[in-house]
Automatic annotation (TrEMBL):
This is Homoserine O-acetyltransferase. It comes from Candidatus Enterococcus lowellii. The gene is metAA. Pathway: Amino-acid biosynthesis; L-methionine biosynthesis via de novo pathway; O-acetyl-L-homoserine from L-homoserine: step 1/1. The active site is at 142 (acyl-thioester intermediate), 233 (proton acceptor), 235. The record marks 191 as: Important for substrate specificity.
């Protein structure tokens, strides 16, 4: 939340240059508080696990947050009960005329398929196009990030010889308000079979915010700050990579041990070194979208039109 300061307070101009929200007394007395509205497009097979992971991260805000869950009707969901989806999830037709402070698009286990061959691709394209006018900000995660980069900015994905799997150090390349409070080098989970072709990134459209010398870019943000692309999984639980590894072994896949993860030969001891970063990122994001969004959500398309 913003800090209330007198207009002539010396620190105010310094904080403003650092993108720290500081408001004058007049605006503070006129501020109206409303719930922050988020939409979660959950493309993961086990939707309940992903719901818990992401809700845990956004629940630390002092703001009231109203969350809607979005499903794609062009896909048959095999790992989540139809009753859960019909009771708690909305279709795009039901929300297409609404506006939201923020949208989160999760990853999906379809990395090895060309984007156009994913059965729900055309429906996802409709959602991604809608998100550019009807939301203040969009977080794209893992495959969702690759899909967004491809659709919005024509950045193609590249196939790895082996699964990128483990906990990787990442260095901040630029200062950005969403990463205020982060260390210059921070850790985060990666679990994917594909990356992005960084040679196709146009500097006037995208900024590489964080990267690893070995695996390349890990976080990108559009130059208008609307689209955030997280190629990793800040939302993962401590044992998420462990469960993925054991699952892959049961399926006969040649997945190697996740790097920088297990601390013992019994593959049971793990220290979570990314939880604080995850909470900080989503806390910063919620504060950012709340300050940037008009009080009346229906004004978002007009504000987005001015920025485009």
């Amino acid at each position: 939340m913003p800090i209330k300061l007198p207009n002539d307070f010396p620190a105010k101009s310094v904080l403003e240059k650092e993108d720290i929200f500081a408001i004058e007394e007049k605006r503070a007395t006129q501020q109206d508080i409303r719930p922050l509205r988020l939409l979660l497009l959950n493309l993961m097979p086990n939707k309940i696990d992903t719901e818990i992971q992401l809700l845990r991260l956004i629940s630390q805000s002092p703001l009231q947050i109203d969350v809607d869950f979005l499903k794609l009707v062009s896909h048959t969901h095999k790992n989540t009960s139809p009753n859960h989806l019909s009771k708690f999830y909305l279709s795009f037709e039901e929300i297409k005329n609404a506006c939201y402070d923020g949208l989160i698009i999760t990853g999906a286990p379809v990395e090895t398929l060309p984007f156009e061959e994913v059965d729900y691709w055309q429906e996802l394209v409709k959602v991604m196009d809608w998100s550019q006018t009807n939301t203040t900000s969009v977080i794209h995660i893992c495959w969702g990030a690759q899909a967004g980069l491809y659709h919005h900015y024509k950045v193609e994905k590249i196939q790895y010889e082996q699964k990128l799997f483990g906990i990787y150090p990442q260095r901040l390349n630029i200062s950005h308000r969403l990463f205020r409070g982060f260390d210059d080098i921070f850790m985060g989970p990666q679990s994917r079979y594909t990356g992005i072709d960084e040679s196709q990134i146009q500097e006037e459209q995208l900024r590489i915010v964080a990267a690893n010398d070995e695996i390349g870019a890990t976080i990108l943000i559009s130059t208008d700050d609307h689209n955030i692309f997280l190629l990793g999984h800040f939302e993962y639980d401590t044992d998420s990579l462990q469960r993925e590894y054991l699952r892959d072994q049961q399926r006969g896949l040649a997945t190697k041990l996740p790097v920088n993860y297990f601390e013992d030969e019994g593959l049971t001891k793990v220290t979570n070194c990314w939880r604080g970063n995850a909470h900080l990122l989503y806390h910063n994001w919620l504060n950012d979208v709340y300050q940037m969004t008009p009080y009346h959500l229906e004004d978002i398309p007009k504000l987005r039109a001015k920025k485009s």
